[in-house]
Predict the 3D structure of the following.
Amino acid sequence: MGEALDIDLLRTFAVIAEVGTLSRAATRIGRSQAAISLQVQRLERLVGHLLLERTGRGVLLTPQGTRLLAHAQRILQYHDEALAELSGRGLVGTIRFGCPDDYAVRFLPHLLRGFARVHPKVHVEVHCAHTPRLLERLDQHALDLALTSFAETEKGRTIIRREPLVWVGAAGSNAAHLKPLRLALTDPDTLDHRAARRSLDVAGRAYRVAYASASLAGLTAVVRSGQAIAVLTRTAVPDDLRVLSAESGLPPLPSVGIGVMVDSKQPSAVVSAFAQHVRQVLPTL
């Protein structure tokens, strides 16, 4: 019988496929990039195929790598479920988790999938809204914890990730050069709304809020029409829209911090475990 596939190698491979670079995978796993690379080489020797292609922006799966990933994910799921059940370490319960709309597409799949592998009996209810609305729900004890954005200068907050705010427009549109500038913004108490108006006021640029929407889908639809520009976090910019550079004549925008807020000072074990999972995984995505 040949050498068996090692769970540790499969887990490393699955993390690399998820985050897209060896450096991020090394941070997630807590090993050096050289050690991660050696694990990949060992796995490639075991299966007899190249699994990753190096590119200037990270790594891509080869066709054989894609096939192996499907098997690896199933193996890891069954392994982790069995270990959690037999060891008694698996948590049970329901978590009410708040997440801003602009982070949902990029972050939620990774956060939920990774936690479910270890705690398959935990049900996570996801509520998406802008940070001010999530904070209101936390105050009302309608959420157990939430991922929230805040100004980097805000004291007393622990930043687990930073995201730059950027001006966003439609490809080929001249909306960034209109006078006055037409803005598509979210609620007035959100960071992107306040940052947009503050930066334009400081620059002395004339503008008007032409479209307001609490929905990220609504804002991006307006921007796609070419009638206005918006301010989004860089990670929330859809592929069909473009980040407007300094050459557009728009003033610079700040970055925002991302953190986790928990409702109770003594959260349950399941809420604490999910909060720790978010703090560990989010910086690597």
